[in-house]
Amino acid sequence: MGEDKLTTTGFFRKKERQEKIVMVTAYDFPGAQAAAQAGVDVVLVGDSLGMVVLGYESTVLVTMEDMIHHSKAVRRGAPSAFIVADMPFLSCHLGISESVKNAGRLIQEGGADAVKIEGGRTSFAAIEAICNAQIPVVGHLGLTPQSVYQLGGYKVQSKDEQSAATTIKEARRLQEIGIFMLVMECVPAALGSFVSSDLHIPVIGIGAGQDCDGQVLVFHDLLGIKTGDLPKFAKQYQQLFPEMVTGIESYAAEVRSGAFPSKEQQYEVAGYEIQDLMKLT
Ligand code: KIV
User: Is 226 in contact with 196 (CB distance < 8 Å)?
Assistant: First the structure.
């Protein structure tokens, strides 16, 4: 981070000054170091780690233990970053006290500054209790990947007037309940724009158009550390996966040819000759 660590009120001020907020996901020590050195405003330990790091088909297999493990690594890599950690699937739906306890674990054990919770109406009660426990909460509306089976796939949400109106009402209610930031994923740009101007809290978009108060991208999408198609809303700024393969291919070729390790990578000792050692064995 170039400047001092932002606080929840710092994000409101950024919105007031119309300064865009930059959020990126990170899941490990070097990723967090890179995000911090690049000077992003928020590092999100997203449960997208289930897909991009652990190779699962969706985020629903990610556990509290996974989130804590990865949040700790991110905190070590970015000691002064504002870190938000995702509440994983079901961690907010097994009773209020369990939800507050889980949110608290991400803060106390994971080292996060805030938690992100997917969903509208069905998450209100848990979100309110977590806010009341003085834990800063980021909301998440639109495409909520933990509900992918209910939503019938990774599709643009709130495409008709009725569902867009529901999203607006849910966003307003979440703000009333006390969240300090809202992520909107995969919704029409006009809705992202409306909600951003309607709420006083910052709205961070991912596939929600250019008028949001900030943007978030998944680390592996933006750096090209993956195979397969990118979602329409993502932009790839580097293509690191082919370079990773090339690097490993070069290493493999040199091991096979005997070029690696060379004298530069080996240790020499002046203290003994191998012939003398033979006498001792
Ligand atoms: O898990 C995640 O990475 C997220 C972002 C896509 C917002 O929730």
Answer: no
Q: Tell me, what's the pLDDT at 75?
A: 98
Distance CA 120, CA 166 (A): 9
Which parts of the chain sit beneath pLDDT 50? Answer: 1-2
Quick one: pLDDT at residue 149? Answer: 80
Residue 273 domain-assigned (yes or no):
no
Give DSSP secondary structure letters for 113-162.
SEEEEE-SGGGHHHHHHHHHTT--EEEEEES-GGGHHHHTSS-----SHH
Q: What is the pLDDT of residue 2?
A: 44
The residue range of the domain holding 41 is: 8-242
Q: Whose CA is nearest to atom 4 of ligand 1?
A: 46
Going by alpha carbons, the residue nearest to atom 1 of ligand 1 is: 46
Check pocket membership of 47 for ligand 1, CB cut-off 6 A. yes
40: in domain: yes
Per the domain annotation, does 117 fall within a domain? yes
Its pTM stands at 0.95
Of ligand 1's listed atoms, the one at least distance from the Cα of 185 is: 7
Q: Domains in the chain: how many in total?
A: 1
* β-pair type (214-217, 21-25): parallel
Q: The domain that contains 106 carries what CATH number?
A: 3.20.20.60
pLDDT confidence of residue 74? 98
